[in-house]
Write a structure and sequence with these properties.
Helix content: over 70%
Number of helices: 10
CATH class of the largest domain: Mainly Alpha
CATH topology of the largest domain: Four Helix Bundle (Hemerythrin (Met), subunit A)
Number of domains: 2
Distance between the termini: 43 Å
Strand content: 5-15%
Shape: globular
Order of helices and strands: HHHEEHHEEHHHHH
């Protein structure tokens, strides 16, 4: 049972990484046979991983057409942003009120990693580096983990995955001139460490809205 669970988690993790890294384009078909060969796994394991990714909004399944990477649309982005504003801010409010010092320490650590990771590569100013993308995702994940409500936290993490797919495929060449992203992250962290839930929520909501504006231009 342990070996099966480990194998399932490996395939899920590798496929998720391929999608979020940009190796699989939005709308691209995900043939089960091809994935079985690529990841050295059975049909059952691959299908289970695909269905988990459907739950997280990274994969879509259509009758008679099979699985494909989620397509990006302005309408879906609008709904996603509204859901994030509702759910992520609620999770953050719980986190600020309930999170312990161990959570604070983890958050400070991942923020430091984010702050020292190069945001854009020297050869391309249009897309973020994979390293910064991972550090950014980790910061936002840990930010909410002080929330003790597992259901709210689970929904928030799934929404973050969907948002990450949009971020990966959005060109942000003009973003640095328009906003101070490191300053936004620092402001959220400072409010959290001050245990000011209202200010933390306000700053996270502003961060999400500004990101939505950039992603819309990127579409």
């Amino acid at each position: 049972m342990v070996d099966k669970e480990t194998r399932n988690e490996r395939v899920y993790t590798e496929l998720r990484k391929d999608i979020l890294s940009g190796s699989r384009r939005p709308g691209e078909k995900l043939p089960t046979a091809e994935l079985c060969k690529r990841y050295g796994a059975s049909v059952g394991v691959v299908r289970e991983s695909l269905l988990r990714l459907v739950e997280h909004g990274l994969v879509q399944v259509r009758p008679m057409q099979g699985f494909r990477v989620t397509e990006l649309t302005a309408e879906d982005l609008r709904d996603l942003t509204q859901a994030r504003l509702d759910i992520e801010t609620l999770a953050l409010r719980y986190a600020v009120n309930e999170g312990d010092t161990e959570w604070e320490s983890r958050l400070v650590g991942v923020h430091h990693l984010l702050s020292v990771t190069p945001r854009q590569s020297e050869d391309s100013q249009e897309r973020f580096t994979a390293e910064w993308g991972r550090a950014h995702g980790t910061f936002h994940t840990v930010l909410l983990e002080g929330c003790r409500n597992r259901l709210i936290l689970g929904i928030a993490h799934r929404l973050r995955d969907s948002a990450e797919l949009y971020r990966r495929w959005s060109v942000e060449a003009d973003a640095p001139a328009r906003r101070d992203v490191p300053g936004e992250h620092r402001g959220i962290l400072d409010a959290v460490l001050s245990r000011d839930a209202d200010l933390a929520v306000e700053r996270l909501a502003s961060h999400i809205r500004r990101t939505d504006e950039v992603l819309r231009r990127g579409l």
